[in-house]
Amino acid sequence: MTNPTRQAVLYRYQLPMEAGVVLRHQRLKTRTGLLLQLRQGEQQGWGEIAPLPEFSHETLEQAQSATLVWLADWLAGASEPATAWPSVAFGSSCALAELAGELPLAADHRKAPLCSGDPDELFARLAALPGEKVAKVKVGLYEAVRDGIVVNLLLEALPDLRLRLDANRSWTRAKADAFAKYINPQWRDRIAFLEEPCQTRDESRQFAQASGIAIAWDESVREADFVVAAEPGVAALVIKPTLVGSLARCGELITQAQQAGLVAVISSSLESSLGLTQLARLAHWLTPGTVPGLDTLDLMQAQLLRAWPGSELPLWQTDSLELVWQR
Questions:
Q1: What integer best gives the mean pLDDT of the chain?
Q2: Which positions are catalytic?
Q3: Which of the four pLDDT bands, split at 50, 70 and 90, describes residue 230?
Q4: pTM for the full predicted model
Q5: Which of 282, 228, 326, 320 shows the shortest CA–CA distance to 102?
Q6: Which residues pair with 198 in a beta bridge?
Q7: Any bridge partners for residue 37, and if so which?
Q8: Contact 281, 261 (CB under 8 A)
Q9: Cα separation of 36 and 33, whole Å?
Q10: pLDDT tens readout for residues 92-131
Q11: pLDDT value of residue 284
């Protein structure tokens, strides 16, 4: 029997993206996803369910179907988050956590800025960063040698800068070595980590040993055979909750990483401002002291329901969303 005090609404959004956003082999013109609102008595909780094209195993349609099945169970009295797909598990667990007052309100709105665009503007922006200067560079989209020259230039120009690099497994070992050749050896320890440089874990491990450039696991974290462990040359785990799963699963990985002496970094999967503000709260709660990787809002042309501090993008409310389901 349906619990009369429980109510739920499911919305679908479609956000226009800035021109030129490329995910692996696909240009992303719009970001689509679902926003879930749960109500029980006077309490309410929101969650975002937004599979990331080219990275998530589930499509938005599969996520929506699974969410509707879970909502029926929740309205009938179930208390656990969904488990069908990672994006659904994350969004449903966030909504439940807000509903129960279990997701702390304090947030870490620091973000490692994505380095792109005009070099002079970039240097000025990075030089003005308050506190710890941490920035991110996507590598592997162009020639490895070009990437090496750009990274070396940034490290040379800003002596207090630490860089996080992300290659998305795009390099052969030879290309990774070509990249490293252009990085001054005395600056390599200012590369906080390079996410998944090579196409296999073993090649990435060998690269780290040979180059002295620390690596981080990202895609590997989501593979069935992955085990969190301390390894030479491995510095961090990058955790993207939309791709990983529930808050409980994320917390489990973070605990394992910290016990192994690794840095755990909460990172976005192009969520809307609502999802990003929840990730900032999660980062403050579970990875205090570590700058999260949340500098993706400026790739969009609007915000949803909750504003990111300092953003001048227009804030869309529920009247800009498609109502999918309500009970």
A1: 93
A2: 138, 240
A3: very high
A4: 0.94
A5: 282
A6: 171
A7: 9, 46
A8: no
A9: 10
A10: 999 999 999 999 999 999 888 888 766 677 777 888 887 7
A11: 98
Amino acid identity, position 97: A
Backbone angles phi, psi at 44, to 5 degrees: -145, 155
Structure token digits, residue 138:
């996507």
